[in-house]
C-alpha cells in the first residue's frame, strides 16, 4: 500500500491528544451505572440464606429465627428412597415430605412397629414422633392414613448430617456396605430391603463424605503451614525480580541457564522416577495397576505402585525430548529474541514502577469478580417460595401444578387425590422482575466480562505508553519523561476510556457466546445427536480461535493507541498492517520470547517447588525442627508451586508487554526513519545491530 504520511517532528507518545470513541465511552459509563442499579435491586430482593440453609416443605429455612425451626437446623427426608442421588437432594426438591429437625435419627425404626408398641413403650413413640409433622400425636390413626397423608415417615434409619441434611450413616465392613452394622432394614411398608437400595438412593454420598474428611484435613494443613507458604511466595517474588534485573546485564547467559536448568530439573525428575520404579521391583503389591485399586483418598497408595512412577517417567521424557528438539531448531531465533529481552530489561530498569502495575489490574479484577459473584447469588435467591402439588398417586392430574398452602385444603385437589400435599418446590415468582431473572443473570455475566476485559486493556495501554516513552527517547535515559507510568495511566483514562471499552466490548461479546455454547453443550450432553455435537464442537472451536485472534489484535491496537492517540478501529488497522508487513519477525520474536518467558516461569516455580518439597518432607536438616506436622505435605507444596507460577506470571506479563511494545515501536522506527542524520533511528545500537542488519531502507523492511 501507499506509505503513510508521518510527522517529521514525531518524538514518542503524542501528548496533545483528543478524546477517542466518545459514544462508546458514554455507553460504557451508562452500563456501569445500570450495573450498580442491578446490584442494588438484587440486594433488596435477594436473600443468600436461601442458599446457605435448606428449606422444608412449608417454605421455611431450617434454623430460621422467630419460627418453630429456630433450633432445628438440619433437613430430614421422610422417604430418602424416593431421591435418585444427592445432586437431586442438594439442588432440586425430592418428591417426599421434608422436615427441619434438631438432630438426625440414630436408630432403625418403622412406624408400624412403633405404633403397635406405643402403650407399653411410650419412649419409642416419643422418639419417633420428633420426626413426624409438628404437632402430630395420634398413634390411633390407621397406618395407611398416616402414610397416605405423610404425617410420619414410614421408617427412620441411622443418619448423620451432611450439608445440613440427614444422609444414611454408611460404612463398609469387610468390603460390605452397612448402615449401623446392618445390611438390611425394614422399609415400614412390610418389606425388608437391602442397604444397597439406600446406597443407590444417596448415590456417591460415601465419596462425598470421604471428600469432606479430606477437605477438613486440607484445611488443617493450610492453617498450620500458611506462614511457610507465604515465605515460599515471597521467595518466588524475589527470584522473579532478580531474574528481570539480571536480564539487563546477562540476558544471554541467564536464558541459557534457564533452559539448561529446566532440562536439568526434568532430568532429575526422570532419574527419580526411574529410581522409585526400580526400587519397587519385587515388593508385593507394587505391580498392581491404578485401575485395580480404584479411587483412594490416601494418595500415598498410588506412590507404592510401579505403574505410577512409570507413567511419570514417560510424561517427563516426552517433555524433555520436545524441549530439546525446539532448542535445536530455534537456536538462531533465540539469539535474536535475547537482544529484545536485553532491551526490555533495560527499559524496565529505568521504569521499575511498571513491575508492580499488575497489582492494580489484580485488584480491579478482584473487585469485578466479587461484585459479580455477590450480585449473582442475590439474583439467584431473590425469588419468593413457589409451592407445587405433591401426590402419592401417579395418576393425579394436579401433580406438579402450583398451589397456595393457605387455601389448599379447601380445594378439590385433596378430594380427587387423597394424600396430596402442597409443598415447597423452589424459589421463583410471577412478577416482571422474577420473570426476567435469567436475563439479569446474563446481563450480570456480560457486564462482568466487559469490565474484566477493560481492566486488562487499561493495564496493557498504560504499560505500552510507559515503554513507548522509553523507546522514543532519543537519548536514553536523559530524554525519558518524568513519571512515565503515571502519565501513561492518566492519558489512557482521560482520553481513551472509550477506545479501551470498545476493544473490551468486542472481546466480551465473543466470550459471552463461548459461555453460552459451553452451557448448551453441558445441557444437551445426554440428548444430542452426533450432528448437533459436531456443530457445537465446530462453533466452540471457531469462537475460541476468534477470541485468541481478537486478543492479539486488541493488544497491539492498545500499543498504537498509547503511542498515537487515535481511535480503536484506526489503531487496530494500523497495528494489523504493520505486523503483516513484518509477519516473519512477529512469528519468530513473539513466540520465541513467549517460550523463553514461559521457561522462566517454569524455572521459578520449579526451583521454589523443589525447595518446598525438600522443606516439607524434612530433608533440609537445618529446618527439620521447624517443619509443621501435616496430613498431606502436597497441600502446601502444590499451593507454593502454583502460587510461585502466578507470581512469576505477574512480573513476566509486564516484561512480555514491554517486548511487544518495543517490537512494534522498532517496526515503526524502521518504516519511519532510515538512519540518516535527518531521520536517525531511535533504537539502541545493539538492537539495530542484531535486528536491523541489511534492513536500512524502509522498502526492504
UniProtKB/TrEMBL annotation:
<comment type="similarity">
    <text>Belongs to the CTL (choline transporter-like) family.</text>
</comment>
<feature type="transmembrane region" description="Helical">
    <location>
        <begin position="21"/>
        <end position="44"/>
    </location>
</feature>
<feature type="transmembrane region" description="Helical">
    <location>
        <begin position="637"/>
        <end position="657"/>
    </location>
</feature>
<keyword id="KW-0472">Membrane</keyword>
<keyword id="KW-0325">Glycoprotein</keyword>
<feature type="transmembrane region" description="Helical">
    <location>
        <begin position="226"/>
        <end position="246"/>
    </location>
</feature>
<protein>
    <recommendedName>
        <fullName>Choline transporter-like protein</fullName>
    </recommendedName>
</protein>
<dbReference type="InterPro" id="IPR007603">
    <property type="entry name" value="Choline_transptr-like"/>
</dbReference>
<keyword id="KW-0813">Transport</keyword>
<keyword id="KW-0050">Antiport</keyword>
<feature type="transmembrane region" description="Helical">
    <location>
        <begin position="253"/>
        <end position="271"/>
    </location>
</feature>
<dbReference type="GO" id="GO:0005886">
    <property type="term" value="C:plasma membrane"/>
</dbReference>
<comment type="function">
    <text>Choline/H+ antiporter.</text>
</comment>
<feature type="transmembrane region" description="Helical">
    <location>
        <begin position="529"/>
        <end position="546"/>
    </location>
</feature>
<comment type="function">
    <text>Choline transporter.</text>
</comment>
<dbReference type="GO" id="GO:0015297">
    <property type="term" value="F:antiporter activity"/>
</dbReference>
<feature type="transmembrane region" description="Helical">
    <location>
        <begin position="447"/>
        <end position="474"/>
    </location>
</feature>
<feature type="transmembrane region" description="Helical">
    <location>
        <begin position="595"/>
        <end position="616"/>
    </location>
</feature>
<keyword id="KW-0812">Transmembrane</keyword>
<feature type="transmembrane region" description="Helical">
    <location>
        <begin position="495"/>
        <end position="517"/>
    </location>
</feature>
<keyword id="KW-1003">Cell membrane</keyword>
<keyword id="KW-1133">Transmembrane helix</keyword>
<feature type="transmembrane region" description="Helical">
    <location>
        <begin position="350"/>
        <end position="374"/>
    </location>
</feature>
<feature type="transmembrane region" description="Helical">
    <location>
        <begin position="309"/>
        <end position="330"/>
    </location>
</feature>
<dbReference type="Pfam" id="PF04515">
    <property type="entry name" value="Choline_transpo"/>
</dbReference>
